[in-house]
Amino acid sequence: QVQLAESGGGLVQPGESLTLSCSASGSFLNLDAMGWYRQAPEKQRELVALMSSDGTAKFGEFVQGRFTITRHNARNTVYLHMNSLKPEDTAVYYCIVMSPDLNWGQGTQVTVSS
Q1: How wide is the angle at C-alpha 65 spanned by C-alphas 108 and 104, nearest 5°?
Q2: Radius of gyration from C-alpha coordinates of the chain
Q3: Which of 32, 70, 87, 108 has the smallest number of Cβ neighbours within 10 A?
Q4: What is the three-class DSSP state of 22?
Q5: d(CA 1, CA 17)
Q6: CB atoms near residue 10 (< 10 Å)
Q7: Which residues lie closer than 8 Å to 73 by C-beta, 6 or more apart?
Q8: What are the backbone dihedrals phi and psi of residue 74, each rounded to the nearest 5 degrees, phi first?
Q9: pLDDT at 30
Q10: Cβ distance 97 to 78 under 8 Å?
C-alpha cells in the first residue's frame, strides 16, 4: 500500500509561482509514473503533468510551458513547479503515483486570485 503526502498549495496572485510536492511512502518496490491531475469546480479532472520513471514528461495542453515537473527518485518525491499562474489554474491538485497500481493523493487546493 502506498501513502501520498502532498504539500505546497495555497493562495497566490495572478502571475506568481507555486511549487507542489508529493512524497510516496509505504510498501512498494519501484515507482513508475508520478505526476499531477487537477479538478476545478464543476469541471472534469484533467492531466496537469506526468513523468515516467525514465524522465519522460507529458503535460496538459493548457500548461503551455508555464509548468515543469521534476522527481527525486531516491526520495520518492515528485514536484510541480508552476509559474505565471492564472485565475483559471484555480483547482484542487491531486498527486498520482503508479506502483504499478494507481494511487491518488487527497489533493491540495491552489487558488489564484487578486
Answers
A1: 30
A2: 13
A3: 87
A4: strand
A5: 33
A6: 12
A7: 31, 53
A8: -65, -25
A9: 84
A10: yes
Whole-number Å distance between alpha carbons of 110 and 114? 13
- Determine the pLDDT at residue 1: 85
Report the candidate in 83, 13, 67 with the shortest Cα–Cα distance to residue 35: 67
Fill in the amino acid letter for 114.
S
What the block records as the C-alpha cell of 109 is: 487546493
Left, alpha or beta for 26 (phi > 0: left; psi -120 to 50: alpha)?
A: left
Question: Which amino acid is located at 77 in the chain?
Answer: T
Asked whether the beta carbons of 30 and 54 are under 8 A apart, the reply is no
Q: Residue 19's pLDDT is what?
A: 98
Kindly report, residue by residue over 55-71, the tens digit of the pLDDT: 999 999 999 999 999 99
Residue 60 is placed in which grid cell? Answer: 496538459
Q: What's the whole-number mean pLDDT along residues 90-105?
A: 95
